[in-house]
Amino acid sequence: MFLGAAMTGLAQIFAVGLAILGLLQSAVAAEETDFAARFAAEQALVATLSHSTMPQDQRQLGDLYRDGLIFSADNPIRKADRNAAIAAYRRAMELGDSSPAVIVSLGRLLMRASGGQGFSAIEPALQALALEGNGDATYLLAIDAMENRHMPLEQAIPRLEAAAMLGSAGAVRDLVAAGVPVGDTLKQAVLTRLTQRAEEGQAAASLSLFHFYADGLLTDRDPHTAMKWLKQAAQNDPVGAVEQLAEQYLLGLNVESDPVRAADLFRQAARAGGRNAALALGRAAMTETNMPVSNAEARWWLQRASEANVRTASVELSNLDLKIALAFKGAPEEREKLIMAALEPIADDPDALANLADHNWHSTDSEVIGKALLPLLEKQALNGRSVAALAYNAWLEANGRPLPDAIARALIVSLRKTPFVSVGFSNFTIASLALDRRMSEAVLSRNEAIRLLFKAADDNVGQAMLRLGQLYRQGDQLARSDSFAKRWFIQASEHAVERAGWELAEMQAASRDPGERQEADRFYLGEIDAGDPRGGLAMVQAHLRQDNLDGITLERAKSAIQAPNDRIALASLLISSGIPSHLQQADTLLSGLREDELEPADLVALGRLKSATAVTPEQTAAAISMLEKAAASGSQYARTALASSYLSSVMQRDKVPAAIAMLQQILDDNPKDPEARLLLARAYMLGIGVERDARKAASLVGDVRRENGMRMPKATLLEADWLAFSSDGRNPAKAVALLNAQAARGSSAAERALGEYYLNGFGPAIRPDAAASRMYAAAHSGDKEAMAALGHMLLNGYGLSQSREAGLGWLERAANAGNTAAMYEISRVFALRPQAESDTRQAIAWLQKAAERNHPNAAYQLGLAYLTGEWVEKDVEQASIWFDRSARSGNLLAARTLKAVRDGAKAEDAAIVSDTAD
């Protein structure tokens, strides 16, 4: 079969270019098929049957239309004709064929046609069959009662049970899905009936037995028996059953994976007219299925499916053509022509264009594709096609570009003219775009957007209610009001908006009212019982903030925690508390994880956690090794995490150039990667691995902020720092406003940053009481830096009543959570107590921990201890090691002391004690 379909314009350029460059073979591997002969024979048969007055001929004609006719002489894909099938079956009944096959087939078609209209005409015949013991007829009547007559499920269950007893596999599946117990007697009756029918050669019965044995619905799961029935079904069903058999071999379900066998079966089903098989062969060239399918063959099947109007085939074909065009290594202008040719078949199909735009294209590819795709989307958007306008906006937003006013106005007009889902939902869509600042004030004011949002909520749009609750909760464009926020979240929950329930529970968990906290716990426990690990994590986090996490609550939460990423997340929460008993629980959670069995993303999470809590160089090296292993998989997320670790670790100073190079490579590959840009911005801001360039740092951060808004707290904090400290863009008031807005969205880092501002007067006036309030909130949210700051404030009575015991407690929690500065401060507390209360053992233990983590002053003080023999046995060699580590961390005093030691100075002369060391 050759790619001989006529093409014009850009399509010809595409075909010729690919042929010349060898990206596609000039012909699909020749296959001796008789599509044309089969098509001609089938058309002749349809013509003969159409003029026949024999009832069995009309039944056969109905079967042909129901299953689909070959599309054309060179296209074997079958296309069904529901209306023609209904007409043929009705004609068969008029001619006297009242067989179960005709009545049930007609009933199935009428059930789905126009919401069940016309089903009543066939209902008496189905009832008669049901009384005769026909399970399929009984099942159809039950479905009609539920779907078309809206009978409650509990009333329809007896009908489903009767249908199941008569051998209806569909009824059995519905009962199981509804949670209705299926007794042994019913199970045996169904299996007996289905087995009898399957042995008579009924493919549908064989398929049902396959599913029952594969899924373990009516009997114990038995993959071998399941495959036996599926293979038997495939002998009598050349399309559907063969497609399912191919999927088993492709995915390795119930049988050993065999991509070659899967491809052969898909080809067999596709030649017999299988639409799904044709799509599977077409997609094989786009996905890593390991099926031996060339681009040429894949394209041929997608072209055939597209001609037969198979849904998504045109988009899949454009995807494949784009992949081929992007692999073109010739002149850029020629590649652009190939891309335009790839898009040409769907240029006037807004749904297909939108689908293509939603595809997660590689970032560098998206810039090339966008040149051809965006004008097409823009044209459709200006022509009033809202789906194209929304896709156009999403593409621009992902690339940090504003939505043109003309497109925004066209979108509003199109949504009001032809509402998207409903009038209310269209109003919600318009309001959301305006509130997200995707529409300018010139197009729609924020006040008008709020009005539309309230209007959408009045029209029972649950998402609008959720958004109103969020606005009131965050104090964003509406005055902050917890009571109004909760009211809207409750209403949204009643309209089945899942997120609303979680937001309401978060507010209740943070409430001072014990009753509300109990309501939050009830919600989380319900999610835990449903097997949702988010419920367990949220409940643990809530109780940690209240300082009342007990063993029973933790065990309830752990019951829903199974996957490695959830175990790591729970361990991270426990470690962030800094409480020793919780640290032990975290160790237990992590002890069962094996590095070689973790996915790259899980390995990154574990590596980051281990790195944050490492005390010794060996532990740090092990954590870095995990990140390096994850990065070696090619994961961009893992590579970014590794670069971050290299840049933030004092022990990895020699890896800083590699980190910068890695970030540059990531951004060459994906210029819009937000994490990589923020890491590079921080490097420019501090001069780590690159020449300090505050303007470049601000530009990178500003771009990320414009693209992500408040979705990335890290970007907000960096921008706030720029506004608070830079000489060029200094605007402390705006920095505080940014941090307040981010803190209202639950960012503990923003809370802590505000506390630091109030402590030091960066923007607002120095207010120790406000600083204490912010630090308290952030510390209870698990922010270890805030814990350390709160401990320091309590020790010194700054903004809070002085309490050395409470202060030391918070410092210890911060240190246990991995805060190096807290470790050092604890050592000083124990060392500088009055002689009778001093604890040199504790002091040196904490000093050692801080020094191991390269705290410059801790390393210096440890070096002095070894040099003078105070607290530890005198050891000049060890002293030199610690002075060297302190000097490499930036301590000039340590460098001078080290030089004195190496020059042979006496210990008492080398021990330069200076207040500046602390």
UniProtKB/TrEMBL annotation:
PANTHER family: ERAD-ASSOCIATED E3 UBIQUITIN-PROTEIN LIGASE COMPONENT HRD3, SEL-1-LIKE PROTEIN. Pfam families: Sel1, TPR_19. InterPro entries: Sel1-like, Sel1_AlgK, TPR-like_helical_dom_sf. This is Sel1 repeat family protein. The lineage of its organism: Bacteria, Pseudomonadati, Pseudomonadota, Alphaproteobacteria, Hyphomicrobiales.
